[in-house]
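Homework help board

Subject: predicted structure for assignment chain

Our instructor gave us this sequence and asked us to write out the predicted structure in token form, then describe one feature. I got the tokens but I'm not sure how to describe them. Can anyone check?
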Amino acid sequence: MEKKRPWWQRPGIVITIALVLLILLGGAAGGIYFTQIPPEQPIQFPHNFHVGVGAQCAYCHTGAATGPTAGLPSPEKCWGCHQQVQKQSPELDKLAAFVKAGDSIPWVPVAIQPDHVHFNHRPHVAAGVTCETCHGDVAQMTVAEPQSGQNMGWCLDCHKKMAPEKWVRLSDCATCHY
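My token output:
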């Protein structure tokens, strides 16, 4: 007479648990992978070139000093510069098409925070935090890339180092989670 196995050792249960774990781990790995690669953009914008010719981050991302989001330049602002340099390329042809149609460029966000996190650029800019601190060395990037390791612990470590005298307020959950 064969001894009856406990329910958790039955082949069907073990296979089901293994499949569920495989799906969950695969989903987590895929999620991590897809949040760490630069998304495909409607126009390839070479940040390294623009920074290399002297364009400051705040020239294009004017909202960083005044509000929660850095914002993006209008196609007309981009076109204003590119009419001066008179350079032709397939990417500039795309820009011209957006300008002619009066459409905004449907950029895909790169630095995405979860819905439960409310990041505001303004106090960081006012405190003298440079763009590179959070966004990496954009002068070396052809396209803007998500920065790995940006999580709550990373932010708290920076707050503790940059403003120890304000640590009580900056470590309060309600500062970023509201």
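Reply (TA_rk): Your tokens look well-formed. For the description, you could write something like this. The mean pLDDT is 89. That's the kind of observation they're looking for.
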